[in-house]
Amino acid sequence: MGFELDGKTYETDEDGYLIDIGSWTKEVADYFAIETGLDGLTEKHWQVVNFLRDYYSEYQIAPMVKILIKSITKSELIMGDDVGNKRGASKMLYELFPLGPGIQACKIAGLPKPTGCV
Amino acid sequence: MSERITDIGSPNYKQFLPPVIKKNYGKWKYHETPKPGVLMHVAESGDKIFSVRIASPRLLGIKSIRYFLSVADKFCDGYLRWTTRNNVEFLTEKEENVEPLIEELQANGWPAGGTGNSASNMLHTQGWVHCHTSATDASGVVKAIMDELFEDFANHTLPGKLKLAMACCLNMCGAVHASDIAVLGIHRRPPKVIHELINTICEIPTTIAACPTGAIRQDMRDGKKSMKIVDEQCMFCGACYTACPNMPISDPLNDGLSIWVGGKCSNARSKPKFTKLAIPFLPNNPPRWPEVVDAVKTIVNVYKAHAKKYERVGEMIERIGWPKFFKLTGFQFTKYHIDDYRLATTTYQTSTQLRRS
Amino acid sequence: MSQTPQLDELKKGPWPSFVKEIENEAETKPMAKDLLLQLEQSYKDKITHWKHGGVVGVRGYGAGIIGRYTDSPDKFPGVSHFHTIRVNQPSGLYYTSKGLGEICDIWEKHGSGLTNLHGSTGDMVLLGCRTEDLEPVFEALTQKGWDLGGSGSDLRTPSCCLGMSRCEFACIDTMEITNECTHYYQDEMHRPAFPYKFKIKVSGCPNDCVSSIARSDMSIIGTWRDDIRIDQDQVKVYADGGMDIVEDVAMNCPTKCVSFKDGKLEIDNDNCVHCMHCINVMPKALRIGTDTGAVILLGAKAPIVEGAMMASVLVPFLKMEEPFEELKELIEEVWDIWDENGKNKERIAEFIERMGKGEFVTAIGKETIPEMVNQPRENPYIFYDEFFVEE
Predict the structure, then answer these.
(1) Taking residues B308-321, what's their average pLDDT?
(2) Measured between CB atoms, does C195 come within 8 Å of chain A?
C-alpha cells in the first residue's frame, strides 16, 4: 500500500502509517492530515507535531500521552488563557486530532505506529 | 442529522433487571441448588427467582443470541443475563417454567449445568480466532476439554468448585494465573529479528524494556539501529513481539501448551493463590489436543479421588504435598518445575517436613 | 468434501461448539466464512494468521476498538479487515431481549455476525468488521444508548459480580459502584493517558466471583465488620440433616473461630477473617453482618513484565455509600501519583514495588498499617530517612 507525492512513492502499512519513517517530510504530514480528515495543519497542530518529532528524535520512542498532554498544558498558543488546565489540554488534543494522539498525531508526525491491545 | 453522541457509558443496569430482582434488590436471604443448572434464590420477602444456567462457548453468533432472546421472551418475560464465566442464565419467578426451559434449551444443543461444585466453564482468550500473539488456539482447546469434562459440568460431582482457564500466550488475557487448572500457550525458541524494518517501525527502548529478563540489547546492522537477543537470557515469552512487529516468535514446530494447577481467587478457607506448573510442555495437536485433554482429565480424576469435601485443587495439593501430587498424576517433575525468576528462593523447600515416599 | 475437516471435528461432542456458531453466521456473512477458512488454515499450519497490531478508532476516542488484519488477504479477503469493537456491558451482565436485540440488529447490518459474550475484561465484544463500518456502528450504538469500552493505556471497562441484584452474600452494591465509576470516569476510559492500563473489578464478597483480587489494579471486595448473623434453628436443621458441622465447618475455618458444641454454633467474631466458608456451607443458617463495606486492594496483574501479582490491601475497610466519594478520592490519589511518576507501560503493581509500598502509601497520604502486609520485612535493608545531625 502507499501513496505518491510530488513524484515520490511512499509505502504505508494497512493502517496507513509510513513503513519507512525516515522518508517523512512536511508535505507527507500535510498529506496525512487531509487523509485522516483534517482541513489542514494549523500552527497549533505543528506545535504538537514538532513536539512529537523532537521527543522521538531524542528518546527513540513516542512520548507517553501524559507527557504530550503536559507539554500542551504549558502551551499558550494552544491553551490560550486556559494554560495549566490538564483536563482542558486533553480536550484540546482531541479537538486538534479527533482520531487521537496514537492514530492521528503520531501518524501525521511520522512516528512509528503505536502497538497493540494488550 | 442528529448530533454525534459520545461519552455516555454503559446503559444503566436497572432497566434490564427483572421486576422480582428490582423489588428484592439487596434483600436476598438464601439460595439453593435444586438440581444441576438451576439456582433458586429466596428473598426476605419470600419471593423467589429461578436461574437456569446453560453452557456457552463464549463465541456466539447472532443467530444463537436471537434464539436465546426468543427463549427469554417465551419463558422469562425477556430477561436473561450472562455469568462472569461466560454461561447464560434465564431468569424466571415461575417454578413451573424451569423444566420446560431446560427441555427447550437442551433440545437445541444448550445443556444446563455449571452450578454448585462443578466445572462451570473454561475462561479463555482469542487464540487463532483473533489474536496475533497466540501460540495456540483457545476455543478449540476449551471445546476439547469441556467435551471431556462434560459430566462434571452437568452434575455436582466435584469436591469443590473447579475453575478452568486458558490463555493462548503468556500475556494471559484472563485469570489463568489464579485458576484451579489452567492451560497456557507457550513458545520455546527466541524470536527472529527482522533487522531491515526495526528502526523504521519499532520503538527500540520500549521493546528492550518489555523483556522480563533483560535479554534484548541495542545493536547496529548496516549502519542502522537495531536489536539483538541474548539467546541464553531469552525465555521465549513473546513480550518483545507485543511491543515490536519485527520480532516474530510463533514457531509451529516448537510452540505448545503448558499445564498449571492450584490457583484460587476466593478467600474461603485459604488465601488466594497462584497456579503452579504441572506440565511444562505438551505438543500443539489440533483439532483436539489429546495430550492436553488427558492431562487435565488426569488432574480432575486425582482431585475427585483425593480431595476432601469443599477443598479446591490447590488446597488438596497443599494438604497431600506436591510430591504426592506428581506421584498420583504420573506427571514428570523436571528442572523446569523449579523456579528461577525473581522470587525463586521463596519457593524452595527449606525444612525437613517431608512425608515418607 | 468439507473445506474444514479439522474444525468439523470440533462440532462433535456435548459442549456447545464455537465452530457451529461461526458456520451459522457464515451462511450469510462472507466475513464469517473466511474466518472459518482462515482458522482451518491455522489449525493446519499451527500458527496464527493475524498480522501484528492494527490501529483504528472512532473520532474523539483513543480506545475501544482493536484493529486486526489477516496476513493472507488474497486467500481470505473476507477477513482483510477484522476489527473488534468493545461495547461497555451493563453492570451485572443483565440484558433484556429488546436491548440485546438492538445490538444484534446493528451488528447484523455492519459486522461479521460474531460476538464474544463476553471478553475477558467484561465488555461485549463485537468480533469482526471493516474500518469503514466503525463509525456507523458507533453511531448506531450510541443512538441506542450503548458506548464503547476501554483499551490501551486507559481505565479499562470496570466490571463486577451480580452482587445485591441476586446474591445474599453481597456486602456492597457492586453493580451501582461499577455503573458509577464507569459514568464518572468516561474521559479516562475513552482517551488513554495513563502510563498503562488500569482495571477496576468489584466483587460483592470475599468469594470474589469476578476474580477481582487476581485481575484488577484496584480490587474492591465487599466485607463486613460486625458479627455474622446466626439462626440456631437453621443450624439444627443442617445438623439433623446429616451435616458434620465440626468437620465441614469448624475444622475448615482458617482461624478456628467457629465452634459447635451441644447443638449450638458459636463464632468468635474478633478472630473471624471473613473468608466466607461457613456462610457458603450453611447459607440458610449463617449470614454476613450488616455493617458492611469494602476492602480496597491494589496491584494485581498478569506476568508481563515483573511477574504475576495479586492485589494487596490498601484500605482494610471503606464504607461504600453512594455516590462513593471516598472511593473516588482514593482512586484519584492513586492515579495522581502513578500518572506523575509511572514509567511507560508500568502497571501500578510494578510502580508500587519500584517505589516501595511503604513509601507509596505515605505518598498518597495514608497511614501504613499492619493489615497491608502478611508479615513485616525479614531483610534488614532499611532505607532510613530519619536521622540525627550533629549540631
Answers:
(1) 97
(2) yes
ipTM of the complex in this document: 0.96
How do residues B69-127 score in pLDDT, each as one tens digit?
999 999 999 999 999 999 999 999 999 999 999 999 999 999 999 999 999 999 999 99
The partner residue sitting opposite B205, judged by closest CB among A60, A116, A118, is A60
Residue B2 reports pLDDT greater than 70:
no
- H runs (alpha helix) in chain C: 5-9, 18-26, 30-45, 97-110, 131-143, 174-184, 186-190, 212-215, 232-240, 245-248, 277-281, 325-341, 348-355, 357-363
Answer yes or no: do C46 and B286 touch at CB < 8 A. Answer: yes
Identify the pLDDT of residue B202.
85
Instruction: Report the residue of chain B nearest C160, measured CA to CA.
Output: B84
The answer to whether the Cβ–Cβ distance between A15 and C62 falls below 8 Å is no
Other beta carbons within 10 Å of C259:
15
Q: Which residue in B238, B248, B250, B281 sits closest to C46, CA to CA?
A: B250
Q: For chain B, list the domains and their CATH numbers.
A: 13-107 (3.30.70.3340), 123-188+252-347 (3.30.413.10), 195-243 (3.30.70.20)
pLDDT of residue C127: 97
Residues 220-279 of B with CB under 8 A from C: 237, 239, 241-242, 245, 248, 250-252, 255, 263, 265-270, 272, 274
Please judge whether B171 and A118 are an interchain contact, meaning their C-beta atoms are less than 8 angstroms apart.
yes
Output the pTM of the full model.
0.96
Q: Which residues, in sequence order, are CB contacts of A35 under 8 Å at separation 6+?
A: A3, A16
Which residue, among C48, C50, C55, would best test binding to A if mutated, counting the most A CBs under 10 Å from its CB? C55
Distance CA C240, CA C263 (A): 10
Is B59–C21 a contact, with Cβ atoms under 8 angstroms apart? yes
pLDDT over 90 (residue A20): no
Q: Consecutive sets of 10 residues in chain C, 391 residues long: mean pLDDT of each?
A: 96 98 98 98 97 89 95 97 97 98 98 97 97 97 98 96 98 98 96 95 97 97 98 97 96 97 96 98 96 98 92 97 97 96 95 96 96 95 93 89
